[in-house]
Automatic annotation (TrEMBL):
<dbReference type="GO" id="GO:0004721">
    <property type="term" value="F:phosphoprotein phosphatase activity"/>
</dbReference>
<protein>
    <recommendedName>
        <fullName>histidine kinase</fullName>
        <ecNumber>2.7.13.3</ecNumber>
    </recommendedName>
</protein>
<keyword id="KW-0597">Phosphoprotein</keyword>
<keyword id="KW-0902">Two-component regulatory system</keyword>
<dbReference type="GO" id="GO:0016036">
    <property type="term" value="P:cellular response to phosphate starvation"/>
</dbReference>
<keyword id="KW-0808">Transferase</keyword>
<keyword id="KW-0418">Kinase</keyword>
<feature type="domain" description="Histidine kinase">
    <location>
        <begin position="37"/>
        <end position="258"/>
    </location>
</feature>
<feature type="domain" description="PAC">
    <location>
        <begin position="1"/>
        <end position="33"/>
    </location>
</feature>
<dbReference type="GO" id="GO:0006355">
    <property type="term" value="P:regulation of DNA-templated transcription"/>
</dbReference>
<keyword id="KW-0472">Membrane</keyword>
<keyword id="KW-1133">Transmembrane helix</keyword>
<dbReference type="GO" id="GO:0000155">
    <property type="term" value="F:phosphorelay sensor kinase activity"/>
</dbReference>
<keyword id="KW-0812">Transmembrane</keyword>
<dbReference type="GO" id="GO:0005886">
    <property type="term" value="C:plasma membrane"/>
</dbReference>
Length: 271
């Protein structure tokens, strides 16, 4: 409580600060639900692994075809758990403030071109996929200070989702633009879209529109939560627009100060 008195000593007002209590309660509630989610998410693959191993032990081991399938499912589930645990560690490091961005000046045009090229190569090396990637970048150089490895993770996460939640053959559009104070990266796909009721929760930890389907696609439901935290670590924001059956667009907005004397910096992405 704060009590305000006039010079005469009369009480002129009282302000009660309830903010801290509700804020810490909210944090505690979030923490509890996070732990419960983690346990749940890890128990599912562990239960699957256990039942496959039991079936192998009970005789399936002597049937090579069956045994091969069971071992490969067990391996998939194990990889899924490893991915989830490393995602959780990333989030926890950011929560504890232990993840300091290692910022360096890079030419964002070259940085994004390099990422998109690499992603395009990996995606289209899968003979069942044939996505198109289009880039709309400013001519010349746009210099900004970012943590290259973390921002690569952000762009990779969004590109991976764009492909994962789109029918094959669609176009993924990546654009970069700047205003006097902002740098804007947009990634748009022509995929299945996100229902309006799910949009506000899309950056929540473990939130998935369709749990079963995304588990099969190797998703942990943590990618966008990590993405959100990394962008925040850069002082930026991330937003999403989506229409079911039409597509989804993510927009990352980072603080930007125009810099023209690019000669001072080495451009590691230009050959
Ligand atoms: P996941 O590991 O499940 O992909 P994310 O945190 O990356 O987790 O994404 C959360 C959920 O948001 C996904 O499960 C999916 O339902 C939805 N989503 C994300 N990106 C897209 C997209 N480009 N198109 C449609 N749905 C998407």
């Amino acid at each position: 409580f704060s009590i305000f008195r006039r010079e005469t000593g009369d009480i002129s007002g009282i302000v009660a600060v309830l903010h801290d209590v509700t804020e810490s309660e909210k944090l505690e509630r979030e923490q509890r639900s996070f732990v419960s989610n983690v346990s749940h998410e890890l128990r599912t693959p562990l239960t699957t692994i256990k039942s496959y191993l039991e079936t192998l032990q009970d005789g399936a081991l002597s049937q090579p075809d069956l045994a091969h399938d069971f071992v490969s499912t067990t391996l998939n589930e194990t990889n899924h758990m490893i991915q989830m645990v490393s995602d959780i560690l990333d989030l926890s490091r950011m929560d504890l403030g232990r993840m300091k961005p290692q910022k360096e000046m890079v030419n964002m045009v070259a940085f994004l071109s390099h990422l998109v090229d690499r992603f395009k190569q990996v995606t289209n090396s899968d003979p069942t996929l044939s996505f198109h990637f289009e880039t709309v970048f400013p001519k010349g150089q746009i210099w900004s200070e970012i943590d290259v490895s973390k921002m690569s993770q952000v762009v990779d996460n969004i590109l991976t989702n764009a492909v994962k939640y789109s029918p094959d053959g669609g176009t993924v559009m990546i654009s970069l633009s700047v205003t006097p104070s902002q740098l804007i990266i947009k990634i748009a796909d022509e995929g299945m879209g996100i229902p309006a009721k799910d949009l506000p929760k899309i950056f929540d930890r473990f939130y998935r529109v369709d749990k079963a389907r995304t588990h099969d696609a190797g998703g942990t439901g943590l990618g966008l939560a990590i993405t959100y935290d990394i962008v925040k670590l850069h002082g930026g924001t991330i937003g999403v627009k989506s229409e079911e059956g039409i597509g989804t667009e993510f927009a990352i907005v980072l603080p930007y100060t125009p810099y023209t004397d690019e000669g001072d910096f080495e451009n590691e992405f230009d050959d």
